[in-house]
Amino acid sequence: MKRKTAYLGLFAAVAIIFGYVESMFPVFVAVPGVKLGIANLVTMLMIYLYSWREAAAISVVRILVIGFMFGNLFSIAYSLAGACISLIVMLLLKKIGGFSLIGVSIAGGVAHNVGQILVAIGIVENFSLMYYLPVLLVSGTITGLLVGILANQVFVRIQPLLKRHEGGRQ
Amino acid sequence: MKKKDIILIIGILAAALVLFVIYQFLLPGDSEAKLQITVEGEVYGTYDLNQNQVIKINDTNVCSIENGIVSMSEASCPDHLCMNQKKIDSRGGTIVCLPNRVVLGIVSEAKSGPDIDAISQ
Fold this sequence. Notes:
Chain A is mostly helical. Chain A contains 6 helices and no strands. Chain B folds into 2 domains: 29 residues; 87 residues, N-utilization substance G protein NusG, insert domain (mini-chromosome maintenance (MCM) complex, domain 2, Sandwich), CATH 2.60.320. In chain B, the strands form 2 sheets. Chain B has a 4-stranded antiparallel beta sheet. The relative contact order of chain B is 0.17. The C terminus of chain B is likely disordered.
């Protein structure tokens, strides 16, 4: 149990660093709102290694820390909405089954983008933001694919290690 | 990657394509279109696209209309994302400055949409 707490702390730290590094390197500057979403890698690993509780907890910690350090209340609201919808969709797809980590990641990325645009529409009260939706769908698919491939590779390598460590004490 | 993954990707891309086609082609621009500036959800002003002009929006942003094309020329926000956004014309589109909550949008006189909204609010 103590070991798990330590691991979760590590994962949270990695997620925060990913979020920070990402905020320094805008990938596609031309389209606002498009980013790699590499922090989702950690969320994916949490879902597959532990359960939705750990994934949700680490997402919230990451968003609050990143938000208070580098963002503002609005960016926290956008991030929370995106992460929430993304997490729900990813869990749903995992439960349905038949999807690999890559498919789950893509769905998560797209859901994240759609969630953020919905919150943005709510805040600026302007439906013409919907014009961004096709762009965000495509960009979410591409970034989700990249993060999914990465998550798959990390998962394959990290799972046996974690199993061995956790099993050793019990 | 599994079969369902591929289906998912194709499905999302198809949805994006359909939305794009709807926005781009089925909603054509018209000469009656006007630029509407919204600040914090409230209409700040409506301007004629056929007239070249520079519009100051409060003290935060400056946008300009040139030959029917609207662009954000100045913004007080730190990231200047709105200034780099795609320029908009009578076919529609939006430029958004989230930090200042300024939205430049195209409204059509022909459609009664905005009027109904104004009344129902």
